[in-house]
Amino acid sequence: MTKYGLTAAQWRGSSLALRVVALLSLMTYMAACAGLPAWVSQAQQVLPVAVSAVAAILSLVAGLEGKTLDAATVANIQTIANEVNTGIVDIEALVKQYQDHASDGLLSSIQTAANVVVANLQKLMSDAQIKNAETQQKITAIANLVVAELQAWASTLPLLQAKAGAKVTLTVPATVSAFKDSFNAIISTPTGNPDVDMALTHIKHL
Known about the structure:
By secondary structure, the chain is mainly alpha-helical.
């Protein structure tokens, strides 16, 4: 006998955190399979905070131009970050279309758009050529946070298309409050580099 995906023995011996994850997994699975508004609501929460996090990267690099970043590096990061923002806007538009006219084709388009955004964020981390370690640490931490959240959210999309008996890997997205806590911790933790730490003070908490 199982309870929320765990055996009876596993449930009795599980921690509160494990039980919460199991419950969230079940809730996300049920919402996705039924095509319930919960899936859309999740998108409406995840995407705006992703935009805010990318805006924080843009603010940080603008404040560090001529200090820990040269103009060429700043321009490169801004170009990629703007592509990320455009991609997120595209996802928001596709989700709205899905609300009005649900289809597997739109789901595929949403997943493709999410993959493009994630790829651009990974490109930002790999191709920006940031030489200052403290600057790279903060930009990478924010970008990784957004990547993890978008990938977790996008992992629920195949459930809406899955046929009975199909195996789909599900990663439960962090709650928006947990995302904000992680983001705020990143920008609040000093690096020891005066220029970077000063630039971080100009970024608003979520």
